[in-house]
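User: Can you model how fe (ii) ion sits in this protein?
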Amino acid sequence: MSTASFEVRFETLRGHMLSFLAERAEAEPEQAKAITKVSRRIVEARLPEVRQEPLRLPGHRHLEAALAMAQDGPMAEFAQAFAAVEPDLRWIRTEHYREKLGDDYMANYCYTNILGYDGLIPDDRMIATFFIIGPGRHYPSHHHEAEEVYFPFGGDTLWGQDGEPPRSRPAGLAVHNTPWLLHEMITGETPLFTFCLWVSPGPIKLAQLAD
Ligand SMILES: [Fe+2]
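Assistant: Here's the modeled complex, given as structure tokens:
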């Protein structure tokens, strides 16, 4: 782990998030509005005086494989900047999933909000997060009011949208979920590891599983 201060490590990560998003906003006009909105928030975001207590969940054990996988893709340096910051972050999960998805699923996934609820920088309308699901899992069809853009770091995850057959997606390119679009993810041999943005029209409401 880097011995630099948290602030220095965070500024490096901030720089990577912003340069990655600027390049993607240029390349992906369909998502440019959402990307630019979150980017502007990341530019002006200030670290809190008192940071949240770091927290690791069982799903965190997949991070090492996730980071190794990212090293083969176009977001390798971005992933390294995240790796230097994450020991100080709070990993969370959407607890209301436990009832339908079970303890096993809950022990194999987690995410950490840089921006958003329970996040490093609290925000009630936008999320910038790093999300992991272990191999061999199915995150079944779900949806939410917020517009969402995933940027996978790599791996063999199958991404499904709108009931279409799930398919693999290239590292670094957007998977765009418009508001309330049903989507699902199926992991294979690698973990799912993705950077993810949410832009909500009002205070964020958590994702809901399809019935
Ligand atoms: Fe989603």
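A couple of observations from the model: Helices lie at 6-27, 32-44, 63-70, 76-85, 98-106. The two ends are 43 Å apart (CA to CA).
User: Helpful, thanks.
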